[in-house]
């Protein structure tokens, strides 16, 4: 008994109000409850005849309110008395509400309220609640008594059913649950609102379960009494007066508003918490980077120390070597040297081994350093005012055997190199963010606690984020104080909270008037069918009298629901296994065969899946889930099943003995029923599902609906997995093909390297060990990455680049936007070093040959002009001389074209001067006058007036215009006209050259400006020409920021259009 009393005195405590908000709510709630109770009992004239029995009932209530408790996470059972709130948020007192509910049902309303108050006092004291919990339980007990005894047409049909009344009380008490959590919470308005809208749901659920348990017990007792007395008070029809309807509507709208505010609070809270979590992760990344950088730099400094001094030097030698770690900047605060037995060999600053404080973390890491012979780090707190980051460095001899271990400490609070981090973490602590150094392997947590606030503790945690550092299991963890988070969160959501509240009120007002009209219409409609409603009243009464059977039926339904959920869970796990094994053929085969069991049912023999591939030679893969052992005896049916699948998409046969398209083999088993279903997968692949049964079946419509539903789910996953496997196969094949290419190939997605073939690795000079680790980094360091970025906006571009070692590459870049993947960039580098060398040799040879031909051609032209001076020539001689002149002129034109082409290829120098277009065209007309007279062709000028000037290279522009006009005269018909015209449009001069020649075929038009191109659709007129004139003209015009185009049809002549800017910026 003494132990029991001692346990009660140590666990019993009721929290009284603290602060004016809590006291105001407490007095308002208490006064309102007392006034309502007194008014109700006076109006109802309720008196207790034997209050002496209250002592017994109150004692019973005390026992029930603390006798049997359930802690659901994890499930634990506790007996009187104990405190549960610290262990779980989900706990309930099984018998807490039973005494006052029973007292109310058996006609003792005053006693019921007294018991509710007593039970609330006991419950709140043993479980650390406040006085508001007492008020909540008392108010709920009072509401239940009102609903049970109130003379009301709406409540009267249900007053003989306590379970229904308890449910109504629960609904009516929802705002009181919110109010109790709001008043019981400690802190500001944000913490109180969060307690009501977010944290209180487990509390609401537990109190609801307690009330429902009491309601069920009371319902059983009342129904037994009703059966004994053979009467019931449930009426068939309930009508509400207008005033009651308005009240219920207003209450309903208030509940809707409460629901909207709850959803808003929780949704916004989750979003804000997720944003805070992402921000905390980013902060941890920066902290880890700073700490690991300091760790690495100190490890490098220790590595640079003289090993001979550390292994066998004197104290003065060691002081000289180690002093560089402390001067001129104090990178390390403490330096210790230990031997392999853990004895202190050297310390700087000097200290004795007895005064040295080594943490457990450093001891564990020290042992790992000796074992692994590697550099490791540790965090520890030797004293409350000192947090250390330690570098443990093994010192090995020439045989790579660890002889000594360096322990270098950096005081995170006071080290000057870590001062920015210390300041930053102090600022985090002030803002509610608390840092811990965590070692997941050692299960160690070292909090960041400064000397001035080491006694502070986090009351509640809003969220925690952990990021590993990469130092042998160490990482950092940030914890956000809940009060700080909610304060900031409430400041952000406050305007939206008020706006939602106002909007809910306005919408509720609109709804109220709309619903009043709709309800009136529904009442009128109901009255029309009142006769049929009255006829069904007896049926409703019979159902109410069989309440326990309804409970059994409900349990059966719940059992079926849980069975379906279990099946659904198994199917989900099966599909996950399929996805996890798609890239392993052997594992996937076993998982797929096991997955076919979802189609196996009662009397099924086996389920077989055929997957056919029609690429090249037709192949079939076979997967089988067997329910019998002799499954191979059914293999003879496979070819017949495949043949049936080609003819039918679906077959459902309940009696296979009457189905003659499957033939039974002698001495072999045969299915008595089967289902065959074709599964389309792709254009080249299809599947066939065959389910065999050992007995005849009657496949109902419900069975087939369920079967096809399973098949649809299975098919969707199978098709996607099969497509993924085909893509994986294609990727393997393409990767092999790309690796066989001799040209470097790079594939980028959104500017990030996805793939590079073997030639690409050779181009980047990567060895075999670096291929899978360094290619992405090496590409970004190479010039080709910048080339890709410069041409990223163009769909297709081709350019030539020469590397530092003299190799020349033609780079082909293709960019394409994919709606799901992003922008795909493919770069192909073709080695054109030999081709370019060959072109240079050929060009040099042709240029040299053209220069050597120039002098003989000039001499021959001179002699051809002197021949008539020797004597008069006859007609034949004159004809021969003209042919000689024409041939020399052709050769001269070809040589000049080759030389001009050489100038173009090597970068022609273009001068800039102003000149008159009229003069240039007049000179061209004069030069071509002889040729025009021979063909009786007239050259006409239209719109060409003096004073029209151009700016550019006069000689080159004249050459370009000459080539076009010369072609027009040369290929015009006899006795025809070549028209030259000039038009001005804005800042451009348009020169038109129209001839009446044979025209150019449409297939030749896009190519006539190509070098050495001879039109194939225009007869033999171009056969003797060099094919350089129009190429040179196009180059000169475009170099002057102009353009040239042509329009022509066979038999209708040709029109050349040259556009040149009046004020030219030479290209």
Question: Could you walk me through the main structural features you see in this protein, from its secondary elements to its overall organization?
Answer:
The chain is of the alpha+beta class and 1067 residues long. Among the domains are: 22-70 and 92-226, Arp2/3 complex 21 kDa subunit ARPC3, CATH 1.10.1760; 599-720, Transcription factor LuxR-like, autoinducer-binding domain (Beta-Lactamase), CATH 3.30.450.80; 741-907, PAS domain (Beta-Lactamase, 2-Layer Sandwich), CATH 3.30.450.20; 913-1061, 2-Layer Sandwich (Heat Shock Protein 90). The protein is 51% helix and 19% strand. The protein is built from 31 helices and 29 strands. Strands 5-4-8-7-6 form a 5-stranded antiparallel sheet, with helices on both faces. A 5-stranded antiparallel sheet has the order 14-13-17-16-15, sandwiched between helices. A hairpin with a 2-residue loop joins β6 and β7 (386-396). α4 packs antiparallel against α5 (109-126) and α5 runs antiparallel to α6. It is extended, with a radius of gyration of 49 Å.
**Strand residue content:** 15-25%
CATH topology of the domain at 22-70 and 92-226: Arp2/3 complex 21 kDa subunit ARPC3
Please give the order of strands in the largest beta sheet: 5-4-8-7-6
The number of distinct β-strands equals 29
The helix/strand class is: alpha+beta
Instruction: Please tell me how large the radius of gyration is.
Output: 49 Å
Task: Provide mean pLDDT, rounded.
Answer: 77
Assign an overall shape: extended
CATH architecture heading of the domain at 22-70 and 92-226: Orthogonal Bundle
Number of discrete helical segments: 31
Described by its quaternary structure, the protein is single chain
Fraction in helix: 40-55%
Top-tier CATH class of the domain at 22-70 and 92-226: Mainly Alpha
């Amino acid at each position: 008994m003494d132990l029991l009393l001692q346990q009660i005195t140590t666990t019993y405590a009721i929290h009284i109000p603290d602060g004016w908000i809590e006291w105001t709510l407490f007095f308002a709630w208490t006064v309102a409850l007392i006034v309502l109770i007194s008014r109700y009992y006076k109006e109802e004239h309720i008196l207790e005849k034997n209050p002496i029995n209250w002592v017994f009932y109150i004692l019973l209530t005390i026992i029930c309110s603390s006798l049997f408790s359930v802690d659901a996470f994890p499930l634990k059972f506790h007996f009187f008395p104990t405190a549960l709130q610290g262990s779980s948020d989900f706990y309930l007192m099984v018998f807490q509400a039973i005494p006052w509910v029973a007292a109310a049902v058996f006609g003792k309303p005053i006693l019921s309220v007294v018991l509710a108050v007593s039970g609330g006092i006991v419950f709140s004291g043993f479980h650390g609640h406040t006085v508001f919990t007492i008020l909540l339980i008392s108010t709920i007990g009072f509401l239940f008594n009102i609903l049970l005894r109130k003379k009301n047409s709406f409540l009267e049909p249900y007053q003989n059913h306590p379970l229904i009344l308890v449910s109504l009380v629960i609904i009516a008490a929802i705002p009181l649950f919110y109010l109790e959590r709001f008043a019981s919470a400690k802190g500001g308005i944000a913490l109180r609102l969060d307690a009501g809208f977010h944290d209180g749901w487990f509390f609401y659920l537990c109190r609801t379960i307690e009330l429902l348990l009491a309601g069920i017990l009371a319902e059983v007792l009342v129904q037994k009494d009703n059966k004994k007395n053979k009467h019931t008070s449930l009426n068939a029809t309930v009508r509400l007066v207008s005033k009651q309807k308005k009240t219920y509507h207003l209450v309903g709208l208030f509940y809707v508003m409460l629901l909207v505010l709850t959803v808003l609070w929780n949704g916004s809270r989750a979003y804000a918490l997720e944003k805070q979590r992402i921000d905390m992760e980013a902060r941890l990344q920066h902290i880890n980077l700073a700490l690991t950088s300091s760790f690495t730099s100190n490890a490098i400094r220790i590595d640079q120390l003289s090993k001979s001094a550390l292994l066998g030097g004197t104290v003065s030698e060691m002081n000289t070597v180690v002093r560089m770690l402390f001067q001129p900047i104090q990178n390390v605060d403490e330096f210790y040297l230990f031997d392999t037995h853990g004895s202190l060999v050297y310390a700087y600053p000097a200290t004795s081994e007895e005064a040295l404080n080594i943490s457990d973390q450093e001891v564990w890491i020290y042992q790992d350093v000796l074992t692994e012979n590697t550099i490791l780090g540790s965090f520890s707190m030797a004293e409350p005012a000192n947090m250390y980051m330690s570098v443990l460095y093994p010192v090995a001899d020439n045989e790579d055997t660890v002889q000594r271990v360096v322990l270098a400490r950096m005081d995170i609070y006071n080290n000057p190199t870590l001062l920015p981090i210390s300041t930053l973490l102090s600022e985090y602590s002030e803002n509610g963010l608390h840092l811990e150094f965590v070692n997941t392997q050692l299960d160690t947590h070292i909090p960041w606690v400064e000397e001035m606030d080491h006694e502070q503790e986090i009351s509640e945690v809003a969220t925690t984020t952990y990021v590993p550092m990469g130092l042998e299991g160490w990482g950092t963890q940030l914890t956000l104080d809940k009060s700080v988070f909610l304060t900031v969160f409430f400041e952000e959501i406050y305007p939206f909270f008020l706006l939602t509240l106002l909007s809910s009120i306005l919408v509720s007002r609109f709804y109220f008037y709309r619903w009043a009209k709709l309800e009136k219409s529904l009442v009128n409609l109901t009255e029309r069918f009142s006769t049929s409603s009255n006829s069904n009243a007896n049926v409703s009464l019979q159902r109410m009298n069989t309440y326990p059977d309804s409970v059994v039926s409900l349990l059966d339904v719940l059992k079926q629901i849980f069975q379906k959920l279990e099946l659904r869970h198994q199917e989900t796990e099966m599909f996950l296994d399929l996805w996890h094994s798609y890239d392993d053929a052997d594992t996937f085969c076993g998982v797929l065969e096991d997955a076919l069991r979802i189609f196996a049912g009662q009397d099924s023999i086996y389920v077989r899946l055929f997957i056919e591939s029609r690429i090249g030679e037709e192949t079939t893969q076979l997967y089988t889930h067997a329910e019998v052992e002799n499954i191979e005896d059914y293999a003879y049916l496979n070819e017949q099943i495949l043949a049936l699948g080609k003819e039918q998409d679906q077959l459902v046969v309940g009696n296979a003995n009457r189905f003659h398209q499957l033939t039974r083999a002698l001495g072999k088993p045969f299915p008595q029923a089967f289902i065959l279903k074709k599964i389309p997968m792709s254009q080249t692949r299809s599947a066939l599902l065959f389910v065999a049964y050992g007995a005849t079946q009657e496949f109902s419509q419900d069975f087939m609906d369920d079967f096809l539903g399973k098949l649809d789910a299975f098919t969707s996953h199978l098709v996607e997995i099969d497509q993924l496997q085909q893509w994986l196969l294609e990727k393997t094949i393409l990767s092999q093909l790309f690796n066989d290419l001799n040209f470097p190939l790079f594939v980028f997605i959104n500017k990030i390297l996805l793939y590079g073939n073997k030639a690409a690795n050779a181009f980047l000079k990567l060895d075999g060990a670096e291929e899978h680790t360094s290619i992405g980094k090496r590409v970004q360091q190479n010039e080709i990455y910048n080339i890709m970025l410069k041409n990223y906006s163009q769909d297709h571009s081709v350019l030539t680049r020469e590397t530092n070692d003299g190799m020349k590459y033609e780079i082909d870049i293709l960019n394409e936007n994919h709606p799901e993947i992003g922008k795909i960039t493919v770069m192909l580098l073709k080695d054109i070093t030999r081709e370019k060398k060959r072109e240079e040799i050929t060009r040099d040879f042709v240029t040299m040959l053209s220069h050597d031909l120039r002098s003989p051609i000039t001499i021959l032209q001179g002699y051809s002009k002197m021949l008539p001076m020797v004597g008069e020539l006859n007609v034949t001689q004159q004809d021969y001389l003209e042919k000689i002149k024409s041939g020399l002129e052709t050769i001269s034109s070809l040589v000049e074209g080759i030389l001009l082409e050489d100038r173009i290829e090597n970068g022609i120098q273009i001068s800039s001067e102003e000149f008159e277009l009229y003069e240039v065209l007049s000179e061209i007309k004069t030069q071509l006058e002889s040729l025009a007279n021979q063909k009786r062709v007239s050259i006409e000028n239209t719109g060409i007036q003096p004073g029209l000037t151009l700016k550019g290279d006069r000689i080159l522009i004249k050459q370009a215009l000459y080539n076009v006009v010369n072609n027009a005269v040369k290929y015009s018909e006899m006795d025809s006209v070549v028209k030259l015209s000039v038009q001005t449009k804005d800042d451009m001069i348009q020169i038109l050259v129209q001839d009446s020649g044979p025209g150019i075929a449409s297939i030749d038009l896009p190519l006539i400006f190509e070098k050495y191109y001879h039109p194939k659709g225009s007869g033999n007129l171009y056969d003797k020409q060099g094919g350089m004139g129009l190429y040179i003209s196009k180059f000169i015009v475009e170099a002057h920021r102009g353009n040239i185009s042509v329009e022509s049809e066979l038999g209708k002549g040709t029109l050349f259009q040259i556009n040149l800017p009046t004020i030219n910026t030479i290209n």
